[in-house]
Amino acid sequence: MQRYFTDRTKKDIGDDIQAAGDDLHHILKVMRMKAGDPMIWVTADGEEALCTLASHEQDLAVCKVKEWVTVNKELPLHVAIACGLPKGDKLELIIQKGTELGAARFIPFNAARSVVKLDDKKAKKKTDRWQKISKEAAEQSYRNQIPAVHDPVSLKTLADMAESYDRKIAAYEEAAKQGEKSTFARILEDLSPGQSLFIATGPEGGFTPEEIEFLKSRGFADAGFGPRILRTETAPLYALSAVSYHFELMR
Question: pTM value?
Answer without folding.
Answer: 0.91
